[in-house]
Every structure is written in C-alpha cells, then in structure tokens.
Amino acid sequence: MSKEGKMGWSLSPDVVNYKGMPADRSQTGGWVPAALILGIEVVERLSTLGISVNLVTYLGATMHLPSAASANIVTDYLGTSFMLCLLGGFLADAFLGRYKTIAVFTIIQIIGTGVLAITTKLPELRPPPCGANGDCKPANGFQMGILYIALYLIALGTGGLKSSVSGFGTDQFDEKDERENAQMKYFFGRFFFFISLGTLTGVTVLVYLEDHVSRSLAYGICTVSMTIAVMIFFSGTKKYRYKKSMGSPIVQIFQVIAAAIRKRKLDVPNDIGLLYETTLEPARIPHTDQFRFLDKAAIVEKEDFGSKVLQAPNPWKLCTVTRVEEVKMMAKLLPIWATTIIFWTAYAQMITFSVQQASTMHRTVGNFLIPAGSLTVFFVLAILITLGIYDRLIMPMWKKWKGKPGFSNLQQMGIGLALSTFGMATAALVEMKRLSVAKSAGRSISTLPISVFYLIPQFFLVGSAEAFIYTGQLDFFITNAPKGMKSMSTGLFLTTISLGFFFSSLLVSIVKNVTGTSDGQGWLADNINYGRLDLFYALLAILGVINFALYMICAVFFKSNKPIETDPAVNGGTAEEKC
C-alpha cells in the first residue's frame, strides 16, 4: 500500500463519511460494509425470483386467468421492475444518493411483499374454487386491483434498489489502492455467487412453501427477511463511504442533444480546435468524426455566455467536446443494445409458458411432487455450471491458445444469443412431444403421462445462454461507456431485460389475436393442451436466427469503430470489478 494509503485521509475528495466530512480510509469502507450492502441484493433476489417464477401458476390455478393473460401479467411485472432501474439510477445520481435510494426503495419493496402476503391470505381477495363441473370464475376487478398494487410496489422497490446496490458496494473500495482493489475483486466474485444462491433458494425452498404449505407464509418470509436485511444495512451507516453526487448523466445527454438541435443550422468548423473545450487534459476525450451532428453542441456563439464576466456558459446551449464525445460513446452502444433484447424475450418463456408446461406433466419423484416453478432450478444450475466451466476450463485453454484471458464481451454475447436460439428450437421440439402425448392420453386430464424432465434441455440451454449474455452485457456496457456515465450505461443494460419482457408480452398479444378463436383456442389457448405452443417457440427460434445475423453485423461494425477508453483502470478490469 502507498504511504498515502496508510495515512487514512488519502481518499478522493468526493468520498465522504455519513456526516459529509472527508472519509477516513481506516474507519470507513472495505469488505465488511460492502458485505452489509450485499445482504439487500441477496434477499431481493430471493423475493423477486421466488415470487415471479411461480406467479404464473397462482394466476392460472387460483385467480383462474387464461394462460396467455397470466404470462403477460408476469412479463409486464418483471419488465416494469427492470425499467424502473432507470428511475432509481436517476434519483440516486441527481437527488438522493445511493444510500438513501437503497433505503427508500427497500422499504417500498417490504410494503409490497407484505401486501402480497395479505392478498394471498384473505379469501375475499381471490375468486372461489372451481366447481365440480369445471366451471371457474375468474378474479374480479377489485381482486386483481389489489394484486396489481402489491406486484407493482414490489416492482418499484426492486427497480429502485437494484440500480444502486452494486454501485454502492463499489463505493466502499478505492480502485487506486492495491489492497482495496484486490478486496473489490473478491467482493464481486462473492456478490454474483450469493445472489445466485438467493435465486436458488427462491426457486426451490420458497416455491415449495408456496405450493405445498402456504403462499402467504412464503411471502411473509420475504417481508421479514427483507426487513432484517434493511436493518443490517442501516447498521453500517457510520462505516460506509459515500460519493458526492455528480449530477444525472441523463440530464447531460439531453443537454448535448438540445444544444445540437438549437445550432442545427450552423456548420461544424474544419478546425476542430475551434470547438468549445475546458475539460482538464487527463479527463479530456479526443474528438471523433462519428455522429458529426452532435459536434454542433460545441460550436461557440456569443449568446452562449451570460452578461457577467467569466460566467460559465449555459450547458443547454454550449457543451464541451468531451461532453459531446461522452454522448457519442453512449450512442455507439445502441445497436448492440437493440440486438440483445431478444434474448430476454426467450428468457421470459422460461418463467411463464415453460412453468405452465411443467404443471401439466408428471412431476413425482418417489413420493415427492416437484413444484412446477421449481423446474427453474435447472436454469440456475445451468448458469452456475456454465460459469464454473468457463472460469476453470475455457478461460485457461483460451489463454494458452489465443493469449487472451477468455472470450471478449462481444463474443460472449454472441454465444449467448446462439444458445438461446437453440434453446427455443429445443423447446419447440419438446412441446411437440408433449402435445402428441396430450392428444393420445386426453387433453383434459390434469397430469399427462410424460416426465417433466423433458424440459431440462431448454432450461439448461437458455440458462447457459444467460451466463454468457449477462456477464458479456455487463462488461460491454461498462467498459465501453465514458467514466462519468457508467451507472447510466448499467441502467441501459438493464433496460434490455425490461424491453425483452415487454416484447414478450407484445408478441404473446399479437399471436393470441392473430391465431386465437372466440372459444379460447389457437396457438396460445387458454389451456395449453389445446394450443400450439410449439409453433410459438418455433417463431421465437426464427426471430432468434434473424436477430443473431443482425447482431453479428452490429458487432463487426462496433469493432471497427471502438470508442476511445479514457480510464486506464477500465482497460485492465473485469465486469465484476466495475459494476
């Protein structure tokens, strides 16, 4: 450690303690405070996944909703959760800071899970059981309204806190200090492991409680565990390091766009040195020729400055070249961003229609009945196994062969997209087999004579795809973003998840309207035994092939136009170090 590091008061000036005073290295930050923050994310993952993977069965079996409607409710709920990450990130950057954002939105999630526990407990908030003749009365507007309030409070809480947890964990370490940088690597290695453990617990223990004991008890456990986690989080208040807000990157992006539009009739000078630039040399980003229209935001006019001497220019009228280049760097990410959305649409099927498939299949092992939602355990195991094989086998072999420590982030995303496409093709073939059994055995029977383990290949393929996609996206969006917009870039990554879920809802609605009939049949029938879910999966596989081709074009284009890196620490780090 450097001499400065031992003195204590050697942190960056923008790092303060809970009183707003310069933070003392020896009294704040490090592994222990970061671990207190980690608990929030572990419990959030436990609750969110434990609720979402089994929600579709509750909507169908208890609330008596059609299969397509149930799937859309789940995907809309999850899509909203990830979209609200942008709101949480904006509030954290511009107003509240990460600590207060985590605290506020965690409490909102606690309220949401509490309301959900009450909703599933009170008979008045769900329709009566189906009659002996199979007549089922769907939930009324009031009952669904209370359920929506609970779900979207959880979505709001999840979106708000998820956007800040990993960043606040990063704040507890000083990347410039060798010892703390090593601790940060260890922290993020454990971070992904523990959230995966939380996911695993959610899709096994919690789902089992929901199906075989009591949903209200399971959701009550979520409420209590989140309450304990936030109390542990508060206990570290005096030990945390807090970074001063630098303003919202979203506002900065809009300032550049507004200034460029305002000066759209002006010509960019041939001498780039005439453009406005006041950024200090170490932080300056050199000018590039892409997106030349945005350069107009840096053209100097007299009216850009106020009447007072040495007054700073209005940022909505004049921006520095560095600020313009930061926006260009973000714009370069958009083609890759757009072509990774389809993966999360495929992912959405694993927690909606695949769970519905499982609920119709033989799930008994000995005397134990596997909950349909717990089939997603194979999804989680696939992620852990894939990451283990990649870290222990593929990376060392790749380093010996190519001299590089693993695949590039673009290669990882390409592998993930290919695997998910194979996953959807496999799902289509398995569903053809399931439907043939349903046709011969009788479509109306509750449990078809076909093993639920036929679904394992599709869970494993899409799960392995997520291992590559998630890590690849996180690394790509962080390492290729400007230093001051890494939180914004992480939020951009999370919107691919959100839009993937929303696109799933849109696609389900379109297919339902195009192929559906008045009696509830079609590709996505009210009862999937009467539908053609295999054709829907095949459609997703075809879309996956088309999207993969577009991704390859965008990836090649991006490689030939790679943005300039300005932070030396970025070039040598991994995604876990910087998320």
Work out the count of structural domains.
3
Q: Judging by the overall fold, what is the CATH architecture of the largest domain?
A: Up-down Bundle
Main β-sheet, in a few words?
Answer: 2 strands, antiparallel
Determine the N-to-C terminus distance. 24 Å
Q: What structural category arises from helix and sheet content?
A: mainly alpha
> Mind telling me the C-alpha Rg?
26 Å
The CATH superfamily of the largest domain is known as: MFS general substrate transporter like domains
CATH-defined fold name of the largest domain: Growth Hormone, Chain: A
Strand ordering within the main sheet? 1-2
Return residue spans where pLDDT drops below 50 for at least 5 consecutive residues: 1-9, 560-579
What's the total number of strands?
6
Helix content class: 55-70%
Assess the beta-strand content as a share of residues. Answer: under 5%
Shape: globular
Q: pLDDT average, as an integer?
A: 82
Organism: Oldenlandia corymbosa var. corymbosa
Membrane topology: Multi-pass membrane protein
Keywords: Membrane, Transmembrane, Transmembrane helix
Transmembrane segments: 77-96, 103-122, 142-165, 186-210, 216-236, 333-356, 368-390, 410-430, 450-470, 491-515, 535-558
